[in-house]
Write the structure tokens for this entry.
Amino acid sequence: GGVGKTTIAKAVFKRNLAQFESYHFFANVREESEKHGSLHLQSELPSKICGKGNFNRRTPNFGFTYATSRLSRKKALIVLDDVNSSMQLQELLVDSRHLFGQGSKIIVTSRDRQVLKNGVDEIYEVERLDHDEALQLFSVNAFSQNHPSQEFMQLSKSVIYYAKGNPLALKVLGCFLCEKRKQEWEIALNELRRTSNVGIKNILRLSYDGLETEDKEIFLDIACFQT
């Protein structure tokens, strides 16, 4: 995660929603499905788009039939964010495509390309940032400018090597190292080198461990609020 799939999907959604009669961004499909089950999400499709109450797919009624008949006439834009299994996609996308009117668009984001191999018309793979893009994004967060100072240039290049073009990792590391001394940068780099397979979780852990106790509590409060 962290390469920007959700961010791109949100940007596309906001830029194009005015062209559609109905629209909805279904965030955290994986998490919502684990909490409530796929049937809950299926029943939310017509209710979110039509602005009606929840409709139970297991016990069809007049309300559900009315909602789906309304949907069939509407040009809709739907985003299903963070789908993590082919079964989810089958239930949420393939079985529901007939509900929407002509010209409707359904955007799906997933960490697993295999999930998207069946039931979608086109796959767009988000590329990681190249070296120059990574250095610029890191610098904006670490120095509030597009490039590091000469004093921190080599250290910055070493840091972005471990981020491997991941935008979230670059932002987190940049914010973490902002206004820190060179000695603290070296300590952080040693921690990154110590881990043979650096992932976003390890980078987040490094940043979290470097916080003061009070800041850690704030970080946890924010994390709990967002989940």
Observations:
- Confidence is low (pLDDT under 50) at residues 53-67, 210-227.
